[in-house]
Specification:
The complex is a heterodimer of chains A (about 130) and B (about 140). Chain A has 2 domains: about 35 residues, no CATH class; about 70 residues, Nucleotidyltransferase, domain 5. In chain A, about 40% of the residues lie in helices and about 20% in strands. Chain A has 4 helices and 6 strands; from the N terminus they run ααββββαβαβ. Chain A has a 5-stranded mixed sheet with strand order 4-3-2-5-6, covered by helices on one side. In chain A, helix 4 links the parallel strand 5 and strand 6. Chain A is elongated. Chain B is an alpha/beta fold and about 140 residues long. Chain B has 2 domains: about 35 residues; about 90 residues, Nucleotidyltransferase, domain 5. Chain B has a 6-stranded mixed sheet with strand order 1-6-5-2-3-4, covered by helices on one side. In chain B, helix 3 packs across helix 4. The longest helix of chain B is centred in the N-terminal third of the chain and has 17 residues. Chain B is rod-shaped. Classes of the chains: A alpha/beta (about 130), B alpha/beta (about 140). At the A-B interface, helix 2, strand 1, strand 2, strand 5 and helix 4 of A face helix 2, strand 1, helix 4 and strand 6 of B. Strand 6 of chain A pairs antiparallel with strand 1 of chain B.
Chain lengths: ~130, ~140
């Protein structure tokens, strides 16, 4: 007799009201969809130069990295100097609001940096150079 | 409808049953989407300084009024021919800008000049008040 009473009360609790959880899950889902920017990482880690006037770049989503050995990396691939412009144009077409952010290693040479900047200029995309704000 | 309904209350009962949709498959899909978007979210926080490379036509004709900061491959920095310590660049640009408020600024970098120096000069120029426009960087013919 006691047993059946217990079972009954458990049965009732099984029907949990999912509505508040669903609300939360939906809000989280919409938040993550909206904030998703699908940035294509350059693929290598560089030692950024310091700059105290550096400002947060929110719409820089075309990342071009230059390693200390002057290799250019875009979208996890090593790119030839001549192919940089094409790659920037392709990424710009995918995301027209973005601008180029060059992640140049502090030991890279300005020749490569200027080549990437020239490529971005030809592709008519704004450029900024990544730095560590201190 | 297979079952015959006799009266209104039976119809109501059936409608009530059908109103309880099974949410489980939708919940599964929503959760999978949620996890996908959480995993792909990157929250990129990048800091940088604006710069531009003027078209090569402008390169040689440096405006007489503008402050030309030259960074040689050796690491030497000169402003209008005067050799300057990297830490003093900001002060020098500030002084020259005070003397001639309309002056523009041009950064010329040698082929093998280190990026750290170039960004340092751009930073100094921004610090000295050239903030509104991207700093132009061109090649320096050594």
């Amino acid at each position: 007799m006691r047993r059946t009473v217990l079972d009954n009360s458990q049965d009732e609790e099984e029907g949990i009201n999912l509505t508040p959880m669903l609300d939360v899950v939906f809000i989280m889902l919409i938040f993550f969809i909206v904030t998703a920017s699908f940035v294509k990482e350059a693929g290598i880690d560089v030692l950024r130069p310091d700059a105290k006037t550096a400002i947060n770049k929110k719409n820089a989503n075309i990342l071009v990295a230059i390693s200390s050995k002057n290799e250019i990396w875009i979208d996890r691939q090593k790119v030839d100097k001549q192919a940089v412009r094409g790659q920037i144009e392709r990424l710009h077409a995918e995301n027209p609001e973005g601008s180029v952010l060059i992640q140049a290693d502090r030991d890279s040479q300005s020749e490569t940096l200027l080549a990437v900047m020239a490529a971005a200029r030809e592709a008519k995309v704004g450029v900024s150079i990544s730095a560590v704000a201190d | 409808m297979a079952r015959r309904v006799d009266n209104l209350s039976q119809i109501m009962a059936q409608a009530d049953e059908e109103a309880e949709i099974d949410l489980t498959p939708m919940l599964d899909v929503v959760f999978i989407m949620l996890i996908f978007f959480i995993v792909t979210a990157s929250f990129l926080r990048e800091f940088g300084v604006d710069a531009t490379k003027p078209p090569s036509v402008q390169q040689s004709q440096t405006d007489a009024k503008s402050i030309a900061v030259k960074i040689y491959s050796s690491g030497e920095i000169t402003i209008d021919g005067l050799s300057i310590d990297p830490r003093a660049v900001s002060a020098q640009i500030t002084r020259r800008k005070a003397e001639n408020p309309d002056a523009g600024l041009a950064v010329l970098a040698g082929k093998r000049a280190k990026t750290a120096l170039v960004v340092g000069v751009v930073d100094s120029a921004r610090d000295a008040g050239f903030r509104s426009d991207p700093i132009p960087i061109s090649e320096l013919n050594e």
